[in-house]
Amino acid sequence: MKVQRDRLHQYQKRIKLITDRETEVARECLRQGNKSKALLALRRKRYQKSLLTKTDQQLAQLEALTSDVEFALVQKDVLFGLQQGTSVLKEIHKEMGGLEKVEMILGESEEAREYQKEINDMLGGKMSNQDEDEVEDELEAMEREVSGVKLPSAPNGNLAEQQQLDLPDAPTETPAQKAKRRREARAREAAEPVAA
């Protein structure tokens, strides 16, 4: 169609040259006093102009058709892109396994979180006071070890004699008193509101 359009443009240029030449022929004939030849040249010019008008109309139709075809090609490309995108989405959905698989995975994740919460609850809140005391004793021993405080060596004689030799004035805390102090501290911690 573009070739046809270019041919019509060339044809219009030729018609324009012919009409210009016919005008010159008509003037020349009038100068020579040949009125009938001048009239014939102007008639041919008029005919060429009518062909030029028809050519303009055909050219306008061809331009409109060319635009329609170009737009149809763009629509075809858009449609092809939509088809490609749809097929890619279908492949992705196929790989994901559908809604059921997504719901199953989300359900499994929720179950895993609940299981982990149960384990945390068991380890954090279900221990006996004696277990808590032993854990805190172990923590204190580690803290002293990390800070460089040496632990006293085990007594190798009578415990009562050893206590009198070490520090007679220092108050000693019995294991029962230590356990009671820790329980009270845990109770206070549990009763304090948690800061957000």
TrEMBL record:
Residues 130-140 have a biased composition (Acidic residues). Residues 155-165 have a biased composition (Polar residues). One of its GO terms (biological process) is late endosome to vacuole transport via multivesicular body sorting pathway. It is found in: Endosome membrane. Keywords: Endosome, Membrane, Protein transport, Transport. Residues 122-196 are annotated as: Disordered. One of its GO terms (cellular component) is multivesicular body. InterPro entries: Snf7_fam. Gene3D superfamilies: 6.10.140.1230. Residues 186-196 have a biased composition (Basic and acidic residues). It comes from the Eukaryota. Belongs to the SNF7 family. This is Vacuolar protein sorting-associated protein 20.
